[in-house]
């Protein structure tokens, strides 16, 4: 789903692009470094509209044919490449086709724009094949690499692009945005469940996510108080929504750490060794993060979940 609204947290990035265009120094390659779910692809579409809108005086107008085509991913001069459904990578063949197309003149009077989202899905060979285009770009071409993990891009690719940072909104702004885009719902809880930004939730069921969060946090509380043993839940967690449960745990622990730290600031307890409570939270947070990295591998998930939850139970 494409959102109908322009998020307020795009403003600083939009100003940067406008200033670069006004000064005639917009780079041919832009690395859009977004916080997860902050809307990097939407910002890339906005930039494509900005340089291709038929009403330059108020570009992007959002209403002309160019703007509408770009919004619908149908503009002949604007191509978006994302991984195909059966793959986590952007394959080399479509990248080659796109590079060949970038050397042709634009159909309209604007720019040829190539959007890679997420750009960290560029398979190394596919990334390599872009280097020459970035070094010797045709006039009025724009390559937009959208990623929340720039370190996963080839260093040679990163170094040939200008960076544009898109910081995510506060949770309150994100909840307001989702309410405006999708209607009322438990958006704050849904956002706390995934820990990511609002664009990752545009198609989500907020009530289901809120319920999953309540179940996960209640189970953790029961384990912490000794009312429940990890083997009793490990299998259920391993087989159902494990990735979201791990995101939910990480986001919950991060919130608890932030709360504890702000209490420490207020009461001037800093300077001494970290209190045991916060050490416990940091250790658990590290363990969750390690588990999230492993969750896509062929590890025995039930055993791994059980080991993770025992860390919470034992402390
Ligand atoms: Zn327009």
Short description:
This protein is 53% helix and 9% strand.
**Biggest β-sheet, characterized?**
5 strands, parallel
- Secondary structure class reads alpha/beta
Beta-strand portion reads 5-15%
Mean pLDDT: 90
Work out the helicity level: 40-55%
What does this structure look like?
This protein is an alpha/beta fold and 315 residues long. The protein contains 13 helices and 5 strands. The protein has a 5-stranded parallel beta sheet with strand order 2-3-4-1-5, sandwiched between helices. Strand 2, helix 4 and strand 3 form a beta-alpha-beta unit. Helix 9 packs across helix 11, helix 11 runs antiparallel to helix 12 and helix 12 runs antiparallel to helix 13. The radius of gyration is 23 Å and the shape is elongated. The model has no long low-confidence stretch (mean pLDDT 90). Zinc ion binds next to helix 3. The site of zinc ion (ZN) has 10 residues, from helix 3.
Describe this protein with a few key phrases.
five-stranded parallel β-sheet, 9% strand, 13 helices, alpha/beta, binds zinc ion, 315 residues, 5 strands
């Amino acid at each position: 789903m494409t959102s109908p609204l322009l998020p307020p947290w795009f403003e600083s990035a939009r100003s940067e692009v406008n200033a670069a265009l006004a000064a005639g120094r917009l780079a041919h390659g832009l690395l859009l470094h977004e916080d997860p779910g902050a809307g990097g692809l939407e910002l890339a579409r906005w930039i494509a509209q900005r340089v291709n809108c038929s009403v330059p005086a108020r570009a992007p107008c959002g209403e002309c044919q160019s703007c509408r085509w770009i919004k619908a991913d149908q503009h002949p001069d604007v191509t978006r490449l994302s991984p195909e459904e059966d793959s986590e990578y952007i394959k080399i063949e479509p990248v080659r086709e796109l590079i060949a197309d970038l050397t042709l003149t634009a159909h309209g009077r604007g720019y040829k724009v190539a959007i890679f989202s997420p750009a960290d899905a560029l398979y190394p060979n596919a990334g390599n094949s872009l280097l020459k285009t970035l070094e010797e770009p045709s006039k009025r071409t724009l390559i937009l690499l959208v990623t929340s993990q720039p370190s996963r891009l080839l260093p040679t690719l990163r170094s040939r692009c200008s960076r544009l940072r898109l910081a995510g909104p506060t949770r309150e702004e994100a909840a307001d945005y989702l309410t405006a885009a999708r209607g009322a719902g438990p958006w704050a809880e849904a956002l706390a469940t995934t820990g990511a930004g609002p664009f990752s939730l545009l198609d989500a069921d907020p009530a289901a996510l809120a319920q999953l969060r309540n179940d996960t946090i209640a189970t953790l509380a029961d384990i912490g108080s000794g009312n429940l043993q990890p083997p009793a839940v490990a299998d259920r967690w391993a087989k159902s929504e494990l990735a979201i449960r791990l995101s939910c745990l990480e986001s919950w622990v991060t919130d608890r750490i932030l709360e504890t730290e702000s209490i420490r600031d207020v009461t001037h307890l800093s300077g001494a060794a970290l209190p045991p409570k916060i050490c416990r939270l940091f250790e658990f947070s590290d363990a969750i993060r390690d588990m999230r990295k492993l969750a896509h591998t062929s590890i025995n998930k039930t055993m791994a979940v059980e080991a993770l939850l025992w860390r919470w139970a034992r402390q």
